[in-house]
Amino acid sequence: MASSLSPLEQDLLCPVCFFIFTDPVFLSCGHSFCRTCLQQNWTKSSGRECPVCRRWSSKTHPPPDLALRKACESYKQQKRSSDSGSQGLLCSLHSEKLSLFCVDDQKLVCGQCVSQDHQSHSFCSISKAAGLHKEQIQTCLTELKKKLQIFHRVKIISDQVAAHIVSQAQNTERQIKEEFGKLHQFLREEEEARITALRNEEMEKSHRMKKKIEDLDSQIKDISARIVESNERLKDDEVVLQGIQTMYERAQYTRLDPELDSGALIDVAKHLGNLRFQVLRRLKDLCPYFPVILDPNTANSSLSISADLSSVSPSPLTQLPDNPERMSMYSGVLGSEGFSSGTHSWEVEVGYGEDWVIGVAEESVSRKEICVAAPENGFCCIWRVENTIYAGTGINSNVKVAKEETIKTIRVTLNWEKGQVIFFSKDKNKVLYTFKHRFTKKMYPCFYNNSTNSVNSMKILSFPSHFTIKQ
User: Fold this and answer.
1) How far is Cα 343 from Cα 10, in angstroms, rounded to an integer?
2) Is the dihedral of CA 362, 363, 365, 367 positive or negative?
3) Is this structure's pTM higher than 0.70?
4) Which of 18, 60, 110, 186 lies 20 to 30 Å (CA to CA) from residue 293?
């Protein structure tokens, strides 16, 4: 080892540890040692002999060798300046090149660190340690990239929701004006009030969605910056290991994945549902009242909902945001109001539709996956296929209830407390089927229309004008 060192370096080596002196002391015999090295040697030998010449020292605490200390510090400073640019990172304690990685302490160490503070620890080469940590960090980055994709996907849908909010607001405003155009002048104030409420909701929900999108943009930038920064640092093994904890922290993102907000869209049902009935109680003869109105925010993109939210018919696919409420996987739509008590009835004109489903569905039914309309899945429904009407009694079973082309109008009655759903044919004046099921959740009217002819609409019939209006 000494043969590869310069004469100056050989003069500055401790004869015990063979490293540059640290806190050197000298004995009466003239030999110098690191204070720690000398104390450790004396502890092992149970005496105070000079480790070189074996001469006895009378002093328990040898004096410091100030001249030698100054020479060592000058040499270290000179070596640090000359080697910092070519030999990589240096030890902050000993000014020597960090040449090993301590597995126990997860840090870079120099030779003196090994002999003084890491004697019983395990070590490996920098390249091997960096390789292991790079692999783990790459795993973290893989997950981070997946998270970035989730953020991008949610942002795309959020952009669609933001655009749809504006479109909904515009269409709803137009329909409101058309409805109010049918009324007398004394109703204009109510019209203005409704439009104001709509615009306020549009402003509030657009502002909320804008803020969400800005937050998604910020997080996407943060994640992207982490990936770029981490990939850049991974190019240098020493940089990776010098700041390994920071690397792990930057390569992980603890914030929860974003979710689409329920209720983000304009509440069209609130503005349009039973509009004339609610506003024009004194003009009830001019205003139809529908016991059930459809919620367009739940409608599949293959369906068309009428302006008064009372009928649904097949239509070419339209571009709609995949918000959480929407029936994405089947041609269904729900009523805007659910029921958790009482008895409720509504009549549906199925017309000449050859492929339809009507009934009730739990609020929690699957909307993003295809499932059978059976009680086990939260549905109590009847359907028509090939001119035959069935009741869905189970996932793998159903009951034939009618084989009639003349059944055009069906009344659905939900008695929540009794756990009954009764389907009554007005055309045949008889009960088609009665479900008996214990309800524990809010139940929504549900409709499915997959008829091939777009004119085959399903329509909810309005109550006669002489029905008592509830105050």
Assistant:
1) 100
2) positive
3) no
4) 186
